[in-house]
Amino acid sequence: MNKTIPIFYGINDIYSPYLAAAMNSLIKHTTPNHNYVITVIHQDVSAENQSKLKELEQNNVKINFKKLENDLRSDLNDDQNPLRADFVTFTIYYRLFIADMFPEYDKGIYLDSDTIVNDDIAKLYEQELDENLMGAIPDAFITHDPVGRRYSKDALNIHENFYVNSGVLLMNLKELRNQHFSEKFLDLLNQYHFKLIAPDQDYINAMCFGKTLYLDPRWNIQPENMICDDFKPKIVHYNLFGKPWNYDNIPFEELFWNSSKETNYYESVLKNKKEYTAEQRKHDQERKDLLVQRIIDTPDLDVTFKKIEDQGVKIRV
């Protein structure tokens, strides 16, 4: 009997061309002895783009779309729903609610849409999580930078080597539901309003520390923060600002372009890259500088995960 492997992405409409390359790369590495169900969680993907993305479907690969606006707003208005929260919270933190949004699945994979898959995703899915809530890979941007290491330790109360990137997640959906993860997250969010550099990623780190399985780093290779160029990546994650569709000479850029060429967005992606302006590049650098400054400043704030935990508040699930 074929196993069904659920995979989740989240995008807005303008990211459709890059999601096409991401999904195409995943589909190219599938095997016929598994069924793959891709769900695109979105706010505003147009009917035209949905149609173009669905053209990637294969006999054993189905692509579905779940619109946050329609499918979640009604749930949020249900007085019996323990996850009642404002809609904006859900749109920012949607990956923290996947377990509740899809009760039919006990396990699943979440991927950022700036990824390229270079191996059968079933191999990731088949890894046993046991009672761990997540499987993930340490984030080289944080773990190999002195400022980042201080952020992990002094803001989140996590050992510097174990801060994970949430762009590739193997999720124990059944255990997340059993542990009422989403409800506990909302309690923390509404009570403390932590200022964080990567809100949903930081909540995953703070709440799941001790119940995270650390995966083979080849499942989340980030070219902008590579510590070794010897890897044959299973997934390339063009995290932060090093996007091959904006910049030249990005490590593993050929994997993106080889996949994009096989989609019906290729010409528009090329055009957008040629038109990427000096002003946009300057803006990228300003955003990166601001991110680094926030990493420096956050541990000194009055309210951090570490300071609250030191007061005896339970953060970890």
TrEMBL record:
One of its GO terms (molecular function) is glycosyltransferase activity. Keywords: Glycosyltransferase, Metal-binding, Transferase. The keyword Transferase applies. It comes from Xylocopilactobacillus apis. InterPro entries: Glyco_trans_8, Glycosyltrans_8_dom-fam, Nucleotide-diphossugar_trans. Signal peptide: none annotated. It holds the Pfam family Glyco_transf_8. This is Glucosyltransferase.
